[in-house]
Fold these 3 entries.
Entry 1:
Amino acid sequence: MNQDKNNIPESKKASRKAEEISLDKTSNSPSFGGGRGEAGASSPIIKDDEIDLIALVKTIWDGRKTIFYAVGICVFIGLVYAFTSPAKYSASATLLPSAEKKSGSLGNLSVLAGMAGINLGAMMGDASAIPAEIYPQVVNSYPFLNELIHEKFNFEEYPEPVSLYNYVVADTIESLGAKLAKYTIKFPWTLKDAILSGNDEKEGERSVDYGVLKLTEEELKAIGSIQDLIQIEVDNKTGLVSIAVEASEPVLTAQYVQKAVDLLQKYVIDYKTQQVQQNLEFVQQRFDEKKAEYESAREAFYDYKDRHRNMISERIDAEYQRLSDAYDIASAVYKGLAQQLEQAKIAVKEETPVFTILDPAKVSYEKSAPRKKIIVLMFLFFGVFIGVGLVLVKVSRGNIRTTI
């Protein structure tokens, strides 16, 4: 009996101890961490809504193999990407457009506003040229790019300069396998396309010019190949304009920049001198007309004068006076238009903006991309992140299974 009495308390003690252990596990079970990791049991990472850094470091250390595997795989992928990516070269040019004539009423206020990046001339309606702020829109416009793709460039694949448009068209030529498939397996569709294209050509012959910009599929493809390559930045405070291009060939990259700079200058000059140029063309046309009339009147007057020398007659005097008056009028108009023509030419020269090339486009054989070290480091950190995430997910799942 005494032994039974002694055994009962021991069993109660054991049951109470088991309950305390189970309660302790339930109260200290974390949202992730704890449980069994890769190296056995580990202490919980979260206790009372606080992170145990020692337990977190121990858990990560226990799962170092997983982290090493993840880092190794990511670094390998990064190396493959870095060494297989095509090389790219960059070129740039910096130019300073000529300063606009400021209105006298604005005075020094326009200068201070320009330093703050504000164009008072444009706000007051005094802007007669394309503002530098909209140069990026000009460069990215379809007329600009359409003219650029028809400029000739030096491609490494061709001995002679060719336009970007012709380069893209030549690049879309079908291979021998595609041609065989076109006239064998795909012959019904080829016949259908030929019939439809013939109808389109007939309709094209009867089509009219609607006065809008119409680009072909090849032109759109050529524009798309260069549109994202050209980067232009404008500093509103200093007025400096930078044009940069990154492409696959060093010489071609520099030529892209130079052609873009030349074409941008042409657009700005044409816009600024449009009015005075039209005036010059009008005066030139009138000058040519009056020059012909002047020469005709002069020839008629001197011819009549030579034929009727030493002859006196009222009729002769009247005709002589008429030809003399016509010659004088033609001479006066001709000389006046000659002066206006010179003034118009001077006005064109005065209105033509001048661009100062501070840093011209130059060929650089130093690769700008891919940046192999940066790529490998990025993949390295990405691998560490993935490895640590996998370790914590494993530990969290182990805790959930232990709790269940």
Note: DSSP finds 15 helices and eleven strands in the chain.
Entry 2:
Amino acid sequence: MTVAQVATEKGIYHYDLHPGNFLVTFVGSTLAVSSIELLDWGLATLVQKPVTKGEVYEYYKEDIRSLS
């Protein structure tokens, strides 16, 4: 489960997903990924109502496409 998924399940939306907001840490000098952190929560918003997975997908759809 990703940090964005956990935050979304708790009703917190990042609003600024793009490659520059991810910090990737590697294992030593290899290309093996040790961790990935989501940065810059300045635009994050707490949503007070229950949100469906479909609503989350619709919200993040453009951000997801831009990452691929």
Note: The first strand starts at residue 12 and ends at 13.
Entry 3:
Amino acid sequence: MVTLSGAHTIGRSHCPSFSDRLYNFNGTNSQDPSLNSMYAAQLKRQCPQGSTDPNLVVPINPSSPNAVDSGYYVDILNKRGLFTSDQTLAHEPRNSKASESKCDDAPPLEE
């Protein structure tokens, strides 16, 4: 599954596909605590709460949105996974080593 999720290295997502992570995670009216706070702030600027603009999209892999590379894995290990499924997959104990191995020893980003 870790390798398959790497397909998210390229692509864009419409804001409603992940906005619950920013504004109402699990019905809490707050952001997902597993999301990097600086990344969440950036996403909130790009996808304002309550926006109905169907043209608002963001890259799935913020560090290298137009390249097939290990950037996706670096992002999710640094809590910059756009989708809950990606973030969860990377931080499950049995999957984190597989995600780390995909990073090509890239240094972690600081929050």
Note: The helical segments are 2-5, 19-23, 37-46, 71-77, 84-91, 93-101.
